[in-house]
Amino acid sequence: MKLSFIIPNYNKSHTVPKTLESIHNSVIKQKYEVILIDDNSEDKSVNIIRKKFPETKILMNKIRQGAAYSRN
């Protein structure tokens, strides 16, 4: 079984990278994936996450709909 971390993001360039670092530095004994749902952020958070955590799957909303909602 794979564990999934699903993280909503909207302009959280300072907090989301810290969350991802915490996940990757934890001792998890099973396979896991990290999915970030971006709600059309206007800051550079998605670019930061792509560079620092390339294994993170990113789903991007083209218009702001509420961070927990994705049509992807």
Keywords summarizing the entry:
single chain, alpha/beta, 3-stranded parallel sheet, 25% helix, globular
Structure characterization notes:
The chain has 72 residues and is of the alpha/beta class. It is built from 2 helices and 3 strands. It has helices at 16-25, 45-52, and strands at 3-9, 32-38, 57-60. The chain has a 3-stranded parallel β-sheet with strand order 1-2-3, covered by helices on one side. Helix 2 (45-52) links the parallel strand 2 (32-38) and strand 3 (57-60). The longest helix is centred in the N-terminal third of the chain and has 10 residues, at 16-25. The chain is globular, with a radius of gyration of 12 Å. The protein starts with a strand and ends in a 12-residue tail after the last strand.
Q: Strand count, sense and closure of the main sheet?
A: 3 strands, parallel
Structural class: alpha/beta
Q: What's the tally of helices? A: 2
Helices and strands, in order, run as EHEHE
State mean pLDDT (0 to 100 scale). 86
What proportion of the residues form beta strands (DSSP E)? Answer: 25-35%
Q: What's the count of strands?
A: 3
Query: Helical proportion?
Result: 25-40%
Q: What value does the Rg take, in angstroms?
A: 12 Å
Task: Categorize the overall geometry.
Answer: globular
| Poorly predicted regions | none
How are the strands of the largest sheet arranged?
Answer: 1-2-3
End-to-end Cα distance: 23 Å
